[in-house]
């Protein structure tokens, strides 16, 4: 019998790659889609991967428990991947209450829907390395204390602990993946890697003349979304639920990541890069570096795509998209 998965955040970066992976594995894939006045474009990432028509979409919202209960009741999933969130750190200072309602309390809504509607299902919570924030150890593992530095990270911390609590309180198969930054050509355009690759492509095609960034000394442990959704799936194939750090173990400055993009396009970074105070944050996460030994050992997971290859793939994809849009 084929397995049945319900994915919240199915229209996002990870939702698209996860749907592709699950379909390849023979799953019946259902996704939560929230109502939008832009009907017709919200599945653009699923379309990019050629899986749009294969995912069953259900109208629901993480902030609306009744819609989640109905969806779980209708779908009867064997696995639930909770990827939906207000996921952008910078926006979380401008919309802190919404971030709490969706990114924090939304997790309880999803857990409740599962507990009441499909208690035998397995649950994945999309936790984040942002929870480490002002890092308490130079390399962060599952045992490193958290110190969130944004409303987003505070909300994710709640989501992480409520997942642990439902596992311990109700015996649910609920796992939390503490994923470090992961990117791809399908990354939202507001995140720094995609902002860089998109702007570099636009400069290359003569569509713009500068790249404005904030703190380029920040360091991140960047991996590829395609590798990271594999780790999510592996977590739900284990007999016991648990928490896992997923990271490459390599950290790089925003400046170095930019250099890869410019050099791939044959451009000199210094000519185009402008530091703009508007992109500095009220509180910064200076550096993240993950210790994923537990995931590597217990799940047999390892990343296959490195930063260099990924940034080049992203620049090429942005060049292709911009050429198509501008018919250059
Ligand atoms: P995206 O921002 O690309 O996707 C977020 C998804 O959540 C979208 O499908 C969005 O829908 C959906 N969503 C937002 N609000 C609601 C709501 N109220 N109800 C239902 N759906 C909603 O994020 P990613 O794919 O990059 O990340 C997936 C998850 O992993 C997120 O929870 C993120 O916080 C977390 N994470 C991501 C990391 C990364 O580096 N990518 C690192 C660690 C954790 P819509 O398309 O309508 O906006
Ligand atoms: P985050 O780690 O989830 O906040 O992912 P982002 O991609 O949004 O940001 C990564 C880092 O890049 C942070 O330290 C930002 O401060 C830094 N950064 C510097 N300039 C920019 C910018 O213009 N946009 C974004 N999004 N981040 C920037």
Defining key terms:
single chain, 328 residues, alpha/beta, Rossmann fold, UDP-galactose 4-epimerase, domain 1, 2 domains, 7-stranded parallel beta sheet, two-stranded parallel ribbon, 11 helices, globular, binds NADPH dihydro-nicotinamide-adenine-dinucleotide phosphate, binds guanosine-5'-diphosphate
Main β sheet profile? 7 strands, parallel
Number of helices: 11
Total strands: the figure is: 13
Query: Which residue ranges are poorly predicted, with pLDDT under 50 across at least 5 consecutive positions?
Result: none
- Overall geometry comes to globular
Average pLDDT level: 97
Order of helices and strands: EHEHEHEHHEHEEHEEEHEEHEHH
- Beta content comes to 15-25%
Helix content: 40-55%
Strand arrangement within the widest β-sheet reads: 3-2-1-4-5-6-11
**Number of structural domains:** 2
CATH 2nd-level architecture of the largest domain = 3-Layer(aba) Sandwich
Oligomerization = single chain
**Alpha-carbon distance between the termini?**
48 Å
Q: What structural class is derived from the secondary structure elements?
A: alpha/beta
CATH fold field value of the largest domain: Rossmann fold
The radius of gyration computed from the alpha-carbon positions, rounded to a whole number of angstroms, is: 19 Å
> Which CATH top level class of the largest domain fits?
Alpha Beta
The CATH superfamily of the largest domain is known as NAD(P)-binding Rossmann-like Domain
Give the names of the bound compounds: NADPH dihydro-nicotinamide-adenine-dinucleotide phosphate, guanosine-5'-diphosphate
């Amino acid at each position: 019998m084929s397995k049945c998965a319900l994915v919240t955040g199915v229209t996002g970066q990870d939702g698209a790659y996860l749907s592709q992976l699950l379909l390849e594995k023979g799953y019946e894939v259902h996704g939560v889609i929230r109502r939008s006045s832009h009907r017709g474009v919200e599945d653009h990432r699923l379309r990019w991967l050629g899986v749009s028509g294969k995912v069953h979409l259900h109208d629901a919202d993480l902030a609306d428990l009744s819609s989640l209960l109905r969806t779980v009741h209708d779908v009867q999933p064997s696995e639930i991947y909770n990827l939906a969130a207000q996921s952008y750190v910078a926006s979380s200072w401008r919309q802190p209450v919404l971030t709490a309602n969706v990114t924090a309390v939304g997790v309880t809504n999803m857990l409740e829907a599962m507990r009441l509607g499909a208690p035998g299902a397995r649950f994945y919570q999309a936790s984040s390395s942002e929870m480490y924030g002002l890092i308490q150890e130079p390399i962060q593992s599952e045992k490193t204390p958290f110190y969130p530095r944004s409303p987003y990270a505070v909300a994710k911390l709640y989501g992480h602990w409520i997942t642990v609590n439902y596992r311990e309180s109700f015996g649910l198969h609920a796992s939390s993946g503490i994923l470090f930054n992961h990117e791809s050509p399908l990354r939202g355009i507001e995140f720094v890697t995609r902002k860089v690759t998109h702007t570099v492509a636009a400069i290359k095609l003569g569509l713009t003349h500068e790249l404005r960034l904030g703190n380029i000394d920040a360091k991140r442990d960047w991996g590829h979304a395609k590798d990271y959704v594999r780790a999510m799936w592996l977590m739900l194939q284990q007999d016991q639920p648990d928490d896992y750090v997923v990271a490459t173990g390599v950290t790089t400055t925003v400046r170095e990541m930019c250099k890869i993009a410019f050099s791939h396009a044959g451009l000199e970074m210094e000519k185009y890069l402008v530091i703009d105070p508007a992109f500095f944050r009220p509180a910064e996460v200076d550096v993240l570096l993950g210790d994923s030994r537990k995931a590597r050992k217990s799940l047999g997971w390892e990343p296959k795509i490195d930063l260099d290859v990924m940034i080049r793939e992203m620049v090429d994809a942005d060049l292709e998209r911009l050429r198509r849009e501008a018919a250059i």
